[in-house]
Design a protein that fits this description.
The chain has about 190 residues and is mostly helical. The chain has three domains: about 1-35; about 50-125, DNA Binding (I), subunit A, CATH 1.10.30; about 130-185, no CATH class. The protein is about 60% helix and about 10% strand. The protein has helices spanning about 1-20, 20-35, 40-55, 65-75, 120-125, 130-145, 145-155, 160-170, 175-185, and strands spanning about 60, 90-95, 105-110, 115. The protein has a two-stranded parallel ribbon with strand order 1-3. A two-stranded antiparallel ribbon has the order 2-4. The chain is extended and about 75 Å long.
Length: about 190
């Protein structure tokens, strides 16, 4: 019975929209303009505009809109780089490792972004706070992995060893900063 009732409601809504198309379009326009001014609306609009770049490089964002809002609110409106108060609405999302520098198929997590002012974001451009070449080191390491290195990695951390094995199998594991520092010192 619920499905029949729901279907009846849908038909009534469709008929009302069809009969009052101008009123409906005006309502939609007002709602969309209002939604774009909210935090959630701004984030949604920005995600849609970045979709093309992410598709080209097969990059995915692995966080929710709510996580992004929470991270933005944690800043209290201060730029992460210059520590200037800009206001929450004037901060821009920045990928710590630029999109142009990550390997194809990378997965960004909530920890891979920061909120900074427009000036710092423009100045930073495609540079990185982290030396991104060190993050790519595990892939170069695979070509010259020796038994001594394998035993050192295994002795250091079994999880790191399994991440390297995952990398060898074509997966994209997440390396921590301590993993990267250890691999750089090999």
């Amino acid at each position: 019975m619920d499905t029949q009732y729901n279907e009846k409601i849908r038909k009534n809504i469709y008929n009302w929209r069809y009969k009052n198309i101008d009123t409906y379009k005006e309502y939609q326009k007002k709602y969309q303009n209002y939604y774009k001014t909210t935090q959630r609306g701004k984030i949604s609009h920005r995600k849609k505009s970045h979709k093309r770049r992410f598709k080209e490089q097969n990059i995915t964002h692995d966080w929710t809109t709510q996580q992004e809002i929470d991270k933005l609110n944690e800043t209290h409106g201060y730029c992460k780089i210059c520590s200037k108060y800009i206001g929450i609405n004037n901060l821009t999302l920045d990928h710590i490792i630029p999109i142009s520098k990550v390997p194809i198929g990378a997965v960004y997590t909530i920890n891979d972004i920061q909120f900074i002012c427009k000036e710092c974001n423009s100045r930073k451009s495609a540079k990185s706070d982290i030396n991104y070449s060190s993050i790519l080191k595990p892939k170069r390491l695979l070509n010259k992995l020796t038994l001594r290195m394998e035993s050192e990695i295994l002795h250091y951390d079994r999880n790191l060893y399994s991440k390297i094995l995952d990398l060898m199998q074509g997966q994209n594991p997440q390396f921590t900063e301590s993993d990267i520092l250890f691999l750089n010192n090999l």
